[in-house]
Predict the structure of Aminotransferase class I/II-fold pyridoxal phosphate-dependent enzyme.
Amino acid sequence: MLALITGAVDDRSARGIAAAVSRLVTAGQLPAGTRLPTVRDVARELGVSPTTVSEAWRSLTRAGAIQTRGRSGTYVSAPVLPRQRLRYSQLGGRAAAVSRDLSTGVPDHDLLPDLTDALKRIGDGRLATSYLDEPVLPALEAVLRERWPFPPERLTVVDGALDALDRVIGEVVRFGDHVVVENPAFPPLLDLLQTVGATVVGVPMDADGLRPPALRRVLADYPAVAVFLQPRAHNPTGVSMSSSRAAELAEVLGDFPDVLVIEDDHAGDIATAEPVSLGSFLSERTVHVASFSKSHGPDLRLAAVGGPASVIGPVADRRLLGPGWSSRLLQGVLLDLLTDPGATAHIRKARSRYATRRAALLGALHERGVTATAADGINLWMTVDDQQIAMVTLAAHGIAVSPGAPFCVTPLAGDHVRVTVGLVADGFDDLADVLADAALLESRGSGPRARPHPRGWR
């Protein structure tokens, strides 16, 4: 058994040892119930510190691959039970009685550009001549490169931001790897990281994004392989990273040269904040995802992903064995929408209307003593006294919102719910009354309770 394990290790770091054992477990060479050699025996055979092997064992334990039974030793775990319900699925599934669903996080259909003219302008749709054509239309790639916040070594197009994140994670994250995310974070990202057995560490945020001192502490404590962040219109808080904060974070990451940065710019052209990226400072290890779902239409299913060729190349190559490419017909539609003056004017108007809606509801809530943030994008992050009571209260009014708990890597200081404010076109005062009633338990008997405006999330 000892020889089997040590013979499978080709990287003698804690991560490499954990990955080797994980492969043996997955392949059935270490079946459930197998007792593993002691930490000291493995360390002696590999010529590494027992601390290194202990860290590998801890990673495998956190991921559920092995378990320690005190003095009886450490064993390969039994096959896991069906995975717990995905965080993403906890955001939907509302009762039929709900008449106003503000839980979805989707854009207002009426603010999306009309595709009719774009479809007419691209002609008969014969944009591909071979299965071996480049995955991105050359004219679209040229436009995307002009818009990119830094010069990407390579760029491709995939089927939406989540597809991009899934494929990048598949290339760079292995079982037991530590990855750093914002806290709160986008639930589907946490689900994707869970599926590969990553160990997720959350870093708190403030009004400018990730807190640099906290990021430094986490990276010093954990051998992270990647940092995931949303540079604009953070979902759920609406925070956009400032250019000065990007510089501070880049300085921190400069001391950890093996950490990859993955940015999910999911709001795209409806974000009011200017594009900002750590790639301006760390282009050789920043992967940037630009989505067009919220600005140009979810059903286009398109996002661009660009960065170092060492990451983007394998992503593009792997797609050759599956979908091959994202529809060049839809790429043609996107190209038209990005270059047509009428379409770009429509997007500007949509961006302005979303900003007006955020400001109107946020102002009405603050007047009622409710703590909430909605700096950018289409979501509002509202502090509530009790998440479940708030959601039940709103459901009684026919309103659905998303619970805050699935967004949290570790619990925050208080309970929250996410409201898709981008879908609220009018009736801000009436909605604010209902939201305030749900948020503030004391308001039901003694009037609204004043709260300070938050400066950060812990």
